[in-house]
Design brief:
Elements (H helix, E strand, L loop, with lengths): L8 E4 L4 E11 L2 E10 H4 L3 H16 L7 E13 L4 E5 L11 H11 L4 E4 L38
Parallel strand pairs: 1-3, 5-6
Antiparallel strand pairs: 2-3, 2-4, 4-5
Length: 159
């Protein structure tokens, strides 16, 4: 079992917003960082533990743990993937494990895995910019024509 055989990035499920964790793998003196993510909606309440169980099972199936390999959680965050615009944004931090230590290199790893996407990232304490809300423009008020004053009707009796 070699570290090169393990994929760098895997996302569980479809969706737009994911929670990801970064794992450090050690085997025979060599290290590798991998990222695993799951959709917020499908992951439920214990999303961190579900990601760890999924990663452990994946590494067991690959024979990594049987070969004496170890893995630890380094941190995590959130990931927004927009297939329509082809953008992928890393931001925030994981509430249980904190932020990943080197987000810039992690962004490069995601760029290698998703070459058709434009990958950007924000620091753990910086939220991505929110889109500007659309402001309804008021139409200018219609100009009213001046009201013509009518002369009072002359009564016929006055004659």
């Amino acid at each position: 079992m070699a570290l090169e055989e393990i994929r760098d990035v895997e996302l569980l499920g479809d969706g737009v917003v994911f929670q990801y964790l970064v794992f450090s793998l050690q085997l025979e003196g060599a290290t590798k960082r991998i990222a695993r993510g799951s959709n917020y909606i499908s992951s439920g309440v214990d999303s961190e533990e579900a990601l760890i169980r999924w990663t452990r099972q994946d590494l067991e199936d690959a024979g990594f743990l049987d070969a004496g390999g170890e893995f630890t959680v380094q941190g995590g965050g959130s990931l927004a993937r927009n297939p329509y615009y082809g953008t992928l944004t890393l931001f925030g931090k994981n509430t249980a494990y904190g932020a990943d230590p080197d987000r810039e290199s992690l962004a490069q790893t995601f760029k290698a895995e998703f070459p058709d996407y434009e990958v950007s990232w924000f620091g753990p304490d910086v939220a991505p910019p929110k889109p500007r809300p659309r402001v309804k423009r008021r139409r200018p008020a219609k100009r009213r024509r001046p009201v013509k004053r009518r002369r009072p009707l002359k009564s016929r009796r006055a004659k």
